[in-house]
Amino acid sequence: MSEVIQGPARTWVAGFRTGVIGPYEEIKLAEPRAFRDETVRQALLMAGGGERVRLRLTNRYGRAPLTIGAARVALRAAGDAIVPGSRREVRFGGAGEVTVPAGGEVTGDPVDLAVEAGAHLVVSLYLPEATEPATFSHQPMETAYVAPGERVDAPELPGAEQVPARFYVSGVDVEAPAGTAVAVAFGDSWFEGVGTTMGADRRSVDVLNRRLERGWVVNQGIAGNRLLVDEVGEHALARLERDALSVPGATHVLVNLGINDLGLPGMAGLPPATADDLIAGFTELAGRVRAAGLRVLAATVGPFAGAIYPGVSTPEGLAARRRVNEWIRAGGAFDAVFDVARAVENPGDPDFIRPDLDAGDGMHLNDAGAGVMAGTVDLADLRL
Predict the structure, then answer these.
(1) What is the model's pLDDT at position 2?
(2) 105 HSE (CA, 13 A, CB side)
């Protein structure tokens, strides 16, 4: 349930979310990073806006407490530069510094800063002490700027190191009109945006948000994430409650999963998940979403026969994909289906992505493909 504030007219809902993983996993699609006496500045594309914001920071996979020496939010001008006059201090229980326990998360005090949907909120964190490798979003298709020393108030960070990841941030809540509907895009790299242009905001979720006239979709995609097995990230059934069902304001969950259960095991010489296993997992996921009072929409599993990664594309995995997709389309487990696979497949060989939509690795969509994926969602099914 959302927290109602200032009477019934306004409420806190999720305006931005990002799926996070630990730095100690065996499969690494990005190198983990630690910090010491450094400022990290990160731009967050807001799915939804409001008159005030609350910053959520996470040390979920940390093994020691994390000290945040100072935190600021601002509106983005360009790159690492902020809009003059928009910078605000973030405090935590009235204090300017906070220690996040190992495995924990903190929510900042409300900040008076109006932000619009589609704008970038800039978060600047000062990390005064040596940290462990950070809890992070490993493929956000956005750049973090890292500068030495305490620079949270700097209007820009010339010479900052640029890192294609996101650190210690799990979300931003916004104060919005009561009844604002929020959908959660819950899945893998096809939501997180792998294959789209870095920093261009062309992920499928971004394009879908630009189609909406009211409400919005927050992005909880994790590249490499699986439905059934941990690695990369906690598997979807394990993180469903935290990353989808408990998101404030959530009304719908959009699901895009399965491709990594079928492909990634082959990289380690293991067999893919079976169709029966995936069907059972999807059935459980759909039941839990519905039991929470939310609607669930599912994507068909995308083609990956052209994957350039050794062991990913196997006859067994591709056959399971076809069977699972038949079940998704006809099984009735979900409130609605958006048929991504059919929209992006090569008509002459439907186990392959259509060449003009392929990011170049046979497994991910480029900007045009992400746009096609966004177009498969029937807005009537969202009822936002």
Answers:
(1) 41
(2) 18
